Amino acid sequence: MQRTAHADKMPNIMSHPPENPTARVFFALWPTDAEREQLAAWQKPLKRLCGGRAMRGETLHNTLVFIGDVELYGLEVLQRAAQEVGGKSFELCFDEARYWGHNHIVYAAPRHAPQQLIQLAEMLGQRLDAHRFKFDQREYRPHVTLLRNAHWSDAPLPAMQPVCWKVADFALVQSVPHDGLTDYRVLARFPLDAGSG
C-alpha cells in the first residue's frame, strides 16, 4: 500500500512538461467582453491619428503587478498570496487616451485613479514580497494598452467616451505564445468585498 501511495504522487511531479517548466504570469483587472468592446472602440480613431498596431480586443486588460516567469509549482503560492489580499470593489473609469513616447504606446488611462485601486496594487505587492516573489516594482500607473508602435507628439490626444466598470475581482493571468501572437489565460480570480467605490 505504501508503494501505491508513493506512485499516486508521482504524476504530480512528472506532469510538468520538461520543455516548459515555467509560466509567464501577471495579476490584472480583467474586464468583461462588453467593457473590452468599449475600450476597443477607441482604437480606430486613435490609429488614424497615431498609426501603429492595435491590440486584439480580447486581450485588453489593466495589469496590476507583472511577475514574469515562475516555476509551475510557484503558481499555487501565487494564488495563496493573492488570497491574502483584502480590498473592496470599486468603479474604475478610463477617460483619457495618452501616449508614451519612450515605448510608442497609446493607452487608456483613468484621469483620477481610485484610491482602492492604488491600495490593491500596493497590498498585492506586499503579499508577493512576503512570499519572496520577484516582480516589477516600478511606480504603479493604471492603463490599458491600445496601440503599439504608434507615433504622436506631446499634444493631448482627443477626448474619448469614458469606459467605466465595476471592479469586483482581480485575476492571475498567464501569457501563452500561440501562432506568433500572445494569448492570455485567466488561471484564477480573487473576489473583492462588495462595497461602494
Please give a structural write-up:
The chain is an alpha+beta fold and 197 residues long. The protein has a single domain, classed as Cyclic Phosphodiesterase, Chain: A, CATH 3.90.1140. 28% of the residues lie in helices and 34% in strands. The protein contains five helices and ten strands, in the order H-E-H-H-E-E-H-E-E-E-H-E-E-E-E. The protein has helices at residues 2-14, 33-40, 43-50, 74-83, 115-130, and strands at 22-29, 53-54, 62-71, 90-94, 96-100, 105-109, 144-148, 163-167, 169-178, 181-191. The longest helix is centred in the middle third of the chain and has 16 residues, at 115-130. It starts with a helix and ends in a 6-residue tail after the last strand. Residues 1-18 have low confidence and may be disordered.
Number of strands: 10
Count of alpha/pi helices: 5
From the 3D structure, determine the CATH topology.
Answer: Cyclic Phosphodiesterase, Chain: A
Q: Give me the secondary-structure category.
A: alpha+beta
Question: What share of residues are in beta strands?
Answer: 25-35%
Q: SSE string, helix = H, strand = E?
A: HEHHEEHEEEHEEEE
Unreliable stretches: 1-18
Computed Rg: 19 Å
Write down the domain tally. 1
Q: What is the CATH architecture descriptor?
A: Alpha-Beta Complex
Oligomer: single chain
Principal-axis shape: globular
Binned, the helix content reads 25-40%
**Biggest sheet details:** 4 strands, antiparallel
User: CATH top level?
Assistant: Alpha Beta
